[in-house]
Amino acid sequence: MSILSFYRVELNRLLRAKMTWLIIALTLAAATPIITGFEYSDGTQFMNFMGVANLSGCVGGGILFVLLTLHELSKMYEKHVDTIVEAVADPARLYCARVLALLTAAVLAVTLTVVCLLPYGLAKLGYVFEAEFYFSSFALFMLCSILLSILLSAALYAVTRRASVSFIIFLLLALTATISEKFSDNHFVKWFMPQIQFLSDDFGNSMMVWLYSYSRLIWFCIFGGLFTLSILGIRRYGKGFFGSFRANLKHVVLPIIAIPLMGAGVYAYAHQPFYDNSPPIDYDTFYSADEEEPTDLFLLGTELDIEIEAARGSLRGTAVHTVENRAGRPVLSAVAVNTGYTVEEILIDGVPVPFVDLKNDTNGEKEIEFTVPAGDGAQTITIIYGGRYKMWAIHKGWGEGSDGISPRYVGLGGRSLYPRIYVDRAEDVHTKGRLTLPDNLTPVTSGAINAVLSVDERAGTKTWSMNNEGSSMVLEAADYVQRSLTAAGLNIEFYYNRKHEAVIEEIGAAELMEDVINFCTELYGPLPFSEDIPLKLIQSTAYGGGGYASFNMSVMNESTFSPENLGDLEIGASSQEVLAHEIIHQWWGLFAHCVDIEDTWWTDEGVTTFTTYLFVRDRYGEDYANQHYVEKWEAAVSDMLENFYYRNPQYLDILPEQYVEALEGRDWGVQMYDMTALMICNAGRLIGMDNVTEALSELYETASSNYTYVTFQDFLDKTGLDREEIAIV
Amino acid sequence: MFKLYRYELKHYLTGKVFLILAVITGVYSWFTLTSDTILGVANTAPFSPWSFGGYLASVLPFCLACLLALTAMMYSADAKLTEEIAAATPTEGRRRALLRLGAIYTGFILLLMMIVVLALVFYYRVFGVMNVCSLIAPLVFTAIPSLFFVTGFAMNLGRINSGSIYALMALLMLYGLVSGGSALPGVLDLFGNSFFRSFPKIIDGIDPAFSVPAGMLISRLVFTLFGLLGMGAAVRAFGKAKRG
To answer: What architecture does CATH give domain A593-726?
Structure first.
């Protein structure tokens, strides 16, 4: 009998067994969010339904099907009928057919789960529901985890012939990959329970689908290879593992398939195309003030022409930097660009020049070196570049980055939009140009409002203008609705996803943003924006962490705008904090800067966090603000100070690098946000909150009008306090 | 009787199964020490009794899953076949069950000793610390109630359906996985995972000495008592079934 004939018989037998249907029913139950009852407090609706269902389905379904696999594979031996069965059936073929039948049962279980959860999903998600992602998420996460679990456990059983031992080894491999700190910064290891922390309701999840399709490919290769190889271990002629292995080796095709398959998996793992090779962050230099070496090159302006192929996750572009070489000699220069892009050509005044890609991945970018010849007056450096966007390796642990190019969302900043040249910046620099995007995406870039320049209906693209006063450009693009607001005499353009339109109206997000702007304008003074260059408030994808602010843009992630998070004060301060925090950065972070070379933790983040507290205190009262802000800061600072490694830094030397990085990152975060805000709050307790507010207001005015930094000592001088009175470390 | 005990020891502990389980437990324990315990628990030192308790709470579900693998052997189809022959001997069924339980417990103690020795080696090699006495309290607090409770539960499950022991193994591991990150009340916190990770933070002072609140102690006693009752019932049933 062929494997196919055995498969038919085995599948028929399996589907008649009560045990199979019990396992299928339990798998369905495991994936039912009503039963798991777990929700991410500030998660999106997709995350709290499909994310949770898939994660619990992966673990529950995986383990249940492993139990079924081991039960089915061991049953014949436990009942001592193996000698009779194997007299008429080839044990290797029978083994393959059984595993195939089990894989089919798993497909059936997940299909039933998807069908049964569909009405609940439709009711719970409402307008957010997307059929394509609903089905693909279950196929990619839950189904693949169960199939991989079956392959691995079958392979283990074929080798050990002990159900208990196979099960324990399986649990070791599955759960260690899932929970161990060792693998927390590498989601490609998470074959059993994917590391999903965010799913976007409005901006698409293509990046996640690409990532996990690739990850699944890796593990199907490895486990598929293991399974194929394990067929050699199927016992024959009453021999043990090694004897049977030798006897089975006559099927040379098995190792010929298995070894390249596993090799392909390992190769794919080692050469994944999504993340770069940047080393861990050195926090001592990362957050300190940039003291760049003078280059004797002066930038006069940048002209861009960029075309984004969102469906492929890539872009192509030309960046023309106009510079003046004031050194009077050739100068070695460089541009920094996203590590996934390739610079194809560099021309200076139209003449191609040699360049070297240093491939020195650092902090998500690499450098391309070339020489700018001596010359009088302006020279144009034309850089033709393109390629598929690569994420910074720092994001490898949580499965997604804050930037990226995907069909429904594009977020590019820093050196990801175009190659930035190292120069001494000149005054009155403009970065402008053209941006071509698929016509479903509306761009929002730093500076002026983007206008449509041309429409190519055949290609389905639109070309937009970009114009920013400055040497940088940040891009956010999605299917945006643009709404004009006014607060404190300031023009505001609010961009939110079309899919979110009804909710934005319902939750009064615009009113909250206007309140923040009114509050800060009263406290620190108006922002110097105009009708041409308005303040842009932008809703962004859930993958983008909290948010950020850049030039006239304040960007906040989509979960900030959910009715649950914004409407319910009892949920805590996180969502409103993000919203207010990113707007307040327009004052602290963009027009006035806190930098201190001595006290490197003194940054804009602390003052911004404290101002957020002031806003919440003003809006909801002191008790609420103290409970949700001050107590949180105190707990975070206390946790940091009490940590063993903080108290005994000499032991840090023995820790693996990844742990040192994680601890330092956490400490930096606490010091910059919580500790600084708490110190300012302590100052308020000593001299009165009004006096501290007034001091900050004066510091802001001086720093924003004179383009100077505010140091911690400036703050102490202004408040008349001694360092020892408020310092925590 | 000692001869029979030696036979049971040979049956359960000298086969490939126990050897493989011991190797896997050792690998998992060392992995836990070098990847998780090294960070310390609740801001205490990695070699504090709290961190050691956290380590045990992480490893014990796995170690107990190994114990369940041995318990599953006790209720396997093969064991049932040999039991037919053993039942014909003058040795009482209850006594045979106790002998098997003794052999399984010996296996568990060996695994536990290995886990503790690995921790001591790790502490000495990495931190230059060797304070055995401070680790005894968390060892007793964590290992004994969970051992009795899980065995009592598993023996009764195995009596009903030997396959359900595997489900219990999975539940144990999942329970161990979930309990570390949640604030479980003492009565549900079988391994003390949640307790070790949260209680030191609410005691005043840095690096607090190991202490257990009365409620938690009572819950340990309840787990132990339930376990002993379960074991007693299973052993009695074992004897009755064979006499019948």
So the answer is: Orthogonal Bundle (1.10)
